[in-house]
Every structure is written in structure tokens, then in C-alpha cells.
Amino acid sequence: MQRPGRAINPYDVVLKQLDETAERIGVGKDILEILKHPRRILIVSVPIRMDDGSVGLHRVSGSAQQGEGAL
User: Fold this and answer.
1) Weakest mean pLDDT among 18-27, 36-45, 60-69
2) Distance separating alpha carbons of residues 71 and 20, to the nearest angstrom
3) What pLDDT does 55 receive?
4) Which of these, 45, 26, 35, 30, lies nearest to 66 by C-alpha position?
5) Residue 38 pLDDT more than 80?
6) What pLDDT sits at residue 11?
7) Average pLDDT in the 6-32 region?
């Protein structure tokens, strides 16, 4: 439970969710550690012109753990 006046750290929330999910689906601790600490992450935002003329952003991300040649 959060203490009053203390800000929520989104990274800590994600790590807790990852731990809980990994336990529920039976992910091994070795795989869990890889997921928690990726070696390299690439995030690309591509502007897309929609049919109605508006512009939206499409974000794509990947990590070195996704396999050889993924990045």
C-alpha cells in the first residue's frame, strides 16, 4: 500500500505486475530476469496520415530478447 504524500513510480508498478503475472502463468525466474532487464530497446514512432486527413502516430517497439535480427 502506498504511503500518503509519496509518488507512484510507474516502473515499480510494472515490475510488480510482471512478477505477479509470471507467477500465475509459470514463467521461470531466468526468463523473468531477462524480461525485467532488456539489453537493448528500440522504439520508433511513425506518423500516419489517416483517410480523413488527420495525422496519427503508430509506435513500434522491440527488444533484443525477441530473437536474432529483431533489432
Assistant:
1) 60-69
2) 28
3) 92
4) 35
5) no
6) 87
7) 92
pLDDT of residue 34: 87
User: Domain locations in the chain?
Assistant: 1-37, 38-71
Distance CA 5, CA 41 (A): 33
Locus of grid cell 507467477: 23
Is-contact 57 46, C-beta < 8 A? yes
User: Counting beta carbons within 10 angstroms of the beta carbon of residue 34, is it exposed (0 to 12), middle (13 to 18) or buried (19 or more)?
Assistant: middle
Classify 5 in phi/psi space as left (phi over 0), alpha (psi -120 to 50) or beta.
left
Which amino acid appears at position 6 of this protein? R
Q: What is the DSSP string of the chain?
A: -PPTTPPP-HHHHHHHHHHHHHHHHT--HHHHHHHHS-S-EEEEEEEEE-TTS-EEEEEEEEEGGG-TT--
